[in-house]
Amino acid sequence: MMAMMLDESEASDAELIGRAKGGDRGAFGKLLERHYDFVYRAAYRWCGRKADAEDIAQEVCVRLGKAIRDYRGGSAFTTWLYAMTVNAARDMMRKTARETVKTEAYGVHALISGEAPAESEDPAEALWVVVRQLPDKQRDAVMLVYGEGLSHAAAAEAMAISETTVSWHIHEAKKRLKTLTRSAGEV
Fold it and tell me: What are the domain boundaries of the chain?
């Protein structure tokens, strides 16, 4: 009985997830509060725009509410949450790309983006801008390992690929980043 009365701030993720699956809104809210910064940070690294990262994080919150019952615990909750965040970011990019094509087809070329990814004086941010140009799997591997600090094994779990494949994607990303940063410097 005492375990059931645990304050949400003292409960583990596993306890909160179990209670949220059972419909406990307070537990679900605490789980969101605990992991929102992680989701936002991952979304921001993926898209590079504050407003888009906020939209993605909100979308993940909505999706999590619908999908929490499907979480089986086979991997770390944050791994599952990261995959959900990346999927939401990709969905947003596809939607934005479709809207851009439609807009350009009607002759409107200047889109108001709110926050253009202008050239940054911060070298780290400039590097993330270049990382966002990598192919999906390379970008995901780099963001998980270097952006989120995951091991290659944890990144492999999040990406549903082997650890060796993660290492290969990072190797290829480094080669491509050298080329992209050289060409950016020549502009």
Answer: 11-111, 120-187
Handedness of CA 51, 53, 59, 64 (dihedral sign): negative
Q: Which residue type sits at 113?
A: S
Nearest to 49 by CA among 112, 108, 98, 103: 112
Assigned CATH for 120-187 = 1.10.10.10
Q: Tell me the per-residue pLDDT of 88-111, one tens digit each, with 9 for 90 and over.
A: 988 888 777 666 554 444 443 333
> Which top CATH class is 11-111?
mainly alpha
Q: Is the Cβ–Cβ distance between 67 and 59 less than 8 Å?
A: no
Question: Mean of the pLDDT values across residues 112-121?
Answer: 43
**Closest by Cα among 76, 60, 86, 65 to 12:** 76
